């Protein structure tokens, strides 16, 4: 990915519509009225709709640059899950008055896909804390494993092949490392990029693939603390067709701590996954390095965006600094020790 490509991808602004216009779209296409509250989204425009009947919804205006085939894939997946895995806590599409699962809205010279989805209950949790919320990390692992089973026979047409957040695309982000110069992790990043290219990528290219969610970060997860259950897994916009180990690596990357055993919380998630859909030892042997690769992806992308002045609220810098600390924690642990700790955790389960 060149600097120009990065600018084109990461500087794409979300749609800009006022609440009155958004409300008119909802009323005309879904026959609903109520209060709209804006929600943060990286590339789309999202609102929470609290209608007059006491129900809540997620109203999504997709970015005009979103590929129609990818948006169709997201709808197809949600409909597939509604039919074949109705107990999974994922959003449900609400049909329009015309019986469609989306509508189109023309704003100036841009066309946006608009969808109305069920609102998922629950709260977000800070999950990267060893010894706390262990039930939540186990719930993530089991939910992702169940999701993988449900998606095993789902058609992947429309899945992107050049998504920057795809672990197989990591080395394409190498030009973005220029934004890390002067940062102590620059050398770690370059070494990790080389290892990914030489050792990890060949394995990823030969393993079987299927659709995966690819973004089970804490911001996309909701929980009922009292009942100790996972109540929401959402944002299917980064779905790709990839080896299942990538699903685990992505989720585990956000659980790395800065203590003596930075991967212990992540191994709780892996153990729960393994109880439902076990992966082969050859795949698990590469998991610590793939977790590092996901952290490096975050470091490169968010570091580049901060470098380009695309962080007016400071949230991306926080992600960037957190990724830097996690990369250093994994380097201090070492790959061999990481693999040994994973083996010990899974053996203890049996």
Account of the protein in words:
By secondary structure, the protein is α+β, with helices and mostly antiparallel strands. It has two domains: 15-118, Phosphorylase Kinase, domain 1 (2-Layer Sandwich), CATH 3.30.200.20; 134-349, Aminoglycoside phosphotransferase (APH), C-terminal lobe (Aminoglycoside 3'-phosphotransferase, Chain: A, domain 2). 45% of the residues lie in helices and 14% in strands. It has helices spanning 3-10, 19-30, 68-84, 134-151, 186-206, 244-253, 264-274, 281-285, 287-307, 315-333, 335-349; strands at 34-39, 45-51, 56-61, 103-107, 110-118, 210-212, 221-224, 229-233, 240-242. The strands form three sheets. Strands 1-2-3-5-4 form a five-stranded antiparallel sheet, covered by helices on one side. The chain has a two-stranded antiparallel ribbon with strand order 6-9. Strands 7-8 form a two-stranded antiparallel sheet. A hairpin with a 4-residue loop joins strand 7 (221-224) and strand 8 (229-233). Helix 4 (134-151) crosses helix 7 (264-274) and helix 9 packs antiparallel against helix 10. The protein is globular. It starts with a helix and ends with a helix. 38% of the residues are buried. The model has no long low-confidence stretch (mean pLDDT 93).
């Amino acid at each position: 990915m060149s600097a120009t490509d990065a600018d084109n991808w990461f500087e794409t602004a979300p749609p800009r519509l006022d609440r009155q216009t958004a409300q008119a779209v909802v009323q005309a296409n879904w026959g609903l009225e109520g209060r709209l509250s804006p929600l943060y989204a990286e590339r789309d425009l999202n609102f929470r709709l609290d209608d007059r009947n006491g129900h809540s919804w997620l109203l999504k205006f997709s970015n005009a640059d979103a590929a129609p085939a990818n948006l169709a894939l997201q709808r197809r997946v949600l409909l597939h899950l509604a039919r074949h895995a109705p107990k999974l806590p994922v959003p449900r599409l609400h049909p329009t008055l015309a019986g469609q699962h989306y509508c189109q809205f023309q704003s100036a010279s841009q066309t946006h896909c608009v969808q109305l989805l069920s609102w998922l209950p629950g709260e977000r949790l800070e999950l990267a804390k060893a010894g706390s919320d262990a039930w939540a990390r186990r719930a993530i692992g089991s939910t992702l494993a169940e999701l993988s089973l449900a998606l095993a026979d789902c058609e992947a047409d429309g899945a992107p092949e050049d998504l920057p957040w795809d672990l197989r695309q990591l080395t394409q982000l190498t030009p973005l490392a220029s934004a890390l110069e002067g940062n102590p992790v620059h050398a770690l990043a370059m070494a990790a990029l080389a290892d990914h290219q030489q050792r990890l990528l060949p394995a990823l290219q030969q393993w079987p693939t299927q659709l995966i969610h690819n973004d089970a970060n804490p911001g996309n997860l909701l929980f009922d603390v009292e009942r100790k259950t996972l109540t929401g897994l959402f944002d299917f916009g980064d779905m790709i067709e990839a080896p299942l180990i990538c699903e685990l690596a992505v989720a585990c990357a956000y659980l790395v701590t800065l203590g003596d055993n930075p991967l212990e919380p992540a191994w709780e998630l892996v153990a729960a996954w393994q109880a439902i859909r076990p992966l082969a030892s050859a795949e698990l042997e590469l998991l610590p390095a793939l977790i590092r690769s996901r952290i490096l992806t975050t470091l490169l992308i968010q570091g580049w965006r901060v470098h380009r002045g695309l962080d007016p609220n400071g949230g991306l810098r926080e992600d960037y600094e957190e990724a830097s600390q996690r990369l250093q924690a994994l380097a201090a642990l070492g790959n061999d020790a990481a693999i040994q700790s994973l083996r010990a955790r899974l053996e203890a389960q049996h």
